[in-house]
Amino acid sequence: MITVRWTGAAGLEITQGETIVLIDPYHSRPGKIECIFGRPEPRTDAIDRYLEGLPGKVETILAGHTHIDHVMDIPFLERRLGCRVIGSRSLETLMALHGRPGVVTVCAGGERIELTGDTAVTMIRSRHVPLLFGKVPCPGEINPACHLPMRASDYRVGDAFILKLEMAGVTLMHAGSASYIESEIKGHHCDILFMAVPGWGKTPGYCARLPRIVRSRVIVPFHYDDFSAPLREDGRVRFIPFQGMKGFIKTISRENPACEIRTIRPFEAMSF
Ligand SMILES: [Zn+2]
Predict the structure, then answer these.
(1) Looking at the 3D structure of the chain, how many domains does it have?
(2) In angstroms, what is the span from residue 84 Cα to ligand 1's centroid?
(3) What is the 157 CA–ligand 1 centroid distance (Å)?
(4) Tell me: the pLDDT tens digits for 216-254?
(5) Which of 53, 133, 200, 258 has the most CB within a 10 Å radius?
(6) What spacing in Å lies between the alpha carbon of 176 and ligand 1's midpoint?
């Protein structure tokens, strides 16, 4: 059995026994003004508060791509936890900028990496949804000549992956970029598919084909919270405006009648 919690934005915490895998952890959540005009730094108090409540030991952190809302907190977390980090070449650049070269298991897509026990992750090559006027925001790779602290726009997308995590006999997929590449995803199956909502209508087949190709039985929408503000204490979600959450749920339900669509609140524990 695994327990999964959505930790806001594209963040997932997957626990088996005392072993924890984190995907795209993002607790700093700097505001829009800070992201546009400033050089946001990790909110270490928020991260530490989160770590204090963890039920086990973080063994691995995985990153789906290197936009700010997916990786900003990873350098601090890696130093705190001394855990393994798996992601793209751009993530390696980010860690090197923070004085930690060589700690990332660098992937380009297609790798299956064994973690401890019966856990494994497959990095499935994907792409990022063209979210803004038909374009991928902050394209390209993180520049190794960046100055710290980085501007939000310095966090370039790098390679994007769909992450397939096999743990305790359960397979979970994390589609945190609201897109996929059909030829890469074919042949990969999962029990639970986490689907990023923003930009969902801009990738043909994202709602209709992806869940069928991967044969998921449960779909969990996520990444729809407004991550430019802290999560609310009462667990209710502030939505990113104009992302069409209702339309997404309607479309995904219509196209996948056999799937259970599970809507969850941040930090609500789900067991599989
Ligand atoms: Zn992104």
Answers:
(1) 1
(2) 22
(3) 6
(4) 999 999 999 999 999 988 888 999 988 889 999 999 999
(5) 200
(6) 8
If you measure from the C-alpha of residue 135 to the centroid of ligand 1, how many angstroms do you get, rounded to a whole number? Answer: 11
Strands (E), the chain: 3-8, 11-16, 19-23, 57-62, 84-87, 104-106, 112-114, 120-126, 160-167, 170-175, 192-196, 218-222, 260-261, 269-271
Distance from the alpha carbon of residue 117 to the mean position of ligand 1, in angstroms: 31
Compute the distance from residue 17 Cα to the ligand 1 centre, in Å: 31
If you measure from the C-alpha of residue 177 to the centroid of ligand 1, how many angstroms do you get, rounded to a whole number? 6
**Which stretches of 9-56 are assigned E, i.e. beta strand?**
11-16, 19-23
Cis preceding linkage at 149, omega within 30: yes
pLDDT in tens, 79-103: 999 999 999 999 999 999 999 999 9
CATH number at residue 267: 3.60.15.10
Whole-number percent of the chain with pLDDT over 90 = 93
Q: How far is the centre of ligand 1, averaged over its atoms, from the C-alpha of 158 (Å)?
A: 10
